[in-house]
Fold each of these.
Amino acid sequence: MIRRGGPALALLALAAASPVGAEVIEATDSGFTVRHARTVAAQPEAVWAALVAPARWWSAAHSWSGDAANLSLDPRIGGCFCERWAAGEAEHGRVIHVAKGRLLRLAGALGPLQGEALSGTLTVQLTPESAGTRVEAVYVVGGHARFALREIAPAVDQVIGEQVTRLAALFPEGG
């Protein structure tokens, strides 16, 4: 969650500095879908335990407080993916679907998108595979914003991709 400047300007700057993500599934002026998937060398139960502990893997650079230790996630319907620090609090998402060890779905416009009239749905699915677990994150955003969502989709794609990569890094090969 980029904390300085206007949301559109900050995300556009990130998009300009980053290569266009190949995982942007679709993008229009009113919405977009991004997807990232990785296979990790761990069983779904271990990946689930890490997934619901975002302080372990979410990038501090994409938090409001600048400290990932302030993040928490309550993995039950209505549970909060929240950030709490001395100077404030932020709800990043609200849990809307849980299938323990298999699927976690959050409703929320992440970061600077939160200041717009947008809806976002982040679905993280864990699927057993012979090599471990496939982690797939799909983030769908739509609604009204003061900028064309098509233009910021690559930046959001990069941010979601970074989080999936950080989660996967908790499970090195053979670890």
Amino acid sequence: MTENIQLDRPPTLVELIVAKLQEAIIGGTIPPGTRLTEEKLSQELNTSRTPLREALFMLELMGFVRRPRGGGWQVPRFDVEKVLERFEDRVMLEVYAVLRSTAETRAAFLQKAGGLLSRMKKAAEAFDYGAYREADLQFHRSLLSLSPSRHLRRKFEDALKHIDWIRQVTISPLIDMSISYEDHKKIITALRGEDVHGAVTWLLQHTDRQVLLIREKLTAPKETIEVAT
């Protein structure tokens, strides 16, 4: 009983800075190609250089910023293949979670997934893409909870952030809501029928569909993407 009780610790200053900068980059406030200086960022975020620099190092590991020649920091123009690797990261972790699931964890997932699917349907009918994406992200986070393993959660969250960004840039909201809802429904149906391998098949097909849409969109000769400002 007690092993299921967890206390959520408050985020550190570094984590708050990381989240704030990620939000600005994903939302397009800081578009790809933007050069960043620690001096200006520390002033805008009203923080000292030490936690800011640590946050930037973390963002560099995640691929959100890089250090170009000449100093400073820059939001990179993402390589298409590297971006699509995030989809592979997500689906591999989800497949692992499904295959490691138990009847108990599947029952807990299905209890939550039904409500999320309902939220996705209502958001799609109202054409509320923001609400749809939030329910979609919660669905994928719930998939990871099928496995008792927690040490891969950070990598999974990093993948979700990049995927949410690239989806907004490349996939039509109408198409995204249509295919995601149907795919998620099939995954839930398979798990309700205790068809674990069927759920894995739908997970892989779901990812393949999203990747195909992104590849079709990014047909320009240069293998980079830019967020419209």
Amino acid sequence: MADITLSAQPREITGRKVRQLRNLGLIPVVVYGKTQVAKNLQVQERLLDRALHSGGASRLVKVDVEGGDRYNVLIRSVHRHPVSHRLLHADFYAVNMTEKQRVNISVIPVGKPATLVTGLMIFQNMDSVEVEALPADIPSAIEIDVTELSLDKSITIADLPVISGVTYVSEPQEHVFTMIQTREEEISEVETVEDVEVVAKGKKDEDEA
């Protein structure tokens, strides 16, 4: 798994003036940490976007700052414009490489259940799961085999693959994937039951008459 690296420059512009940076394609960011004094940086929007799409939303990112500074960070939060969704700001958390971190990792289904037929569908109960790991061991995503999934068998946290150096924090019994009947199928069943009840009631009325 290739490292994610990001180039940055020291930033002097703060407050409302950061709009000037965005007009130049630069995004203001802040690096902070348990023992790290907050520092203002700026990064190119296209490079930050690329890092995020490469898994930077959960994986370790190495930030090289013009002038020689380097930070190992987790991107804690990203702010986007509510309409255009363009990047506006990001917070980088500087980590200690020997200290475990808790992060949410995306889960991706792999395979197709043999029991998947018309009227059934796979329901993903959790888009991500919380894990604990050293920064260098944090995976970009977790692939989950769903071929054994059925109406009678769900996939829980306890069923997730073992990953070296990674501990699942969520409760073992929590469902990650389940198989459910589609809404159309459920409606069809309800209508059938109602029909039976109506027929039974009509027959009873006739008997009473």
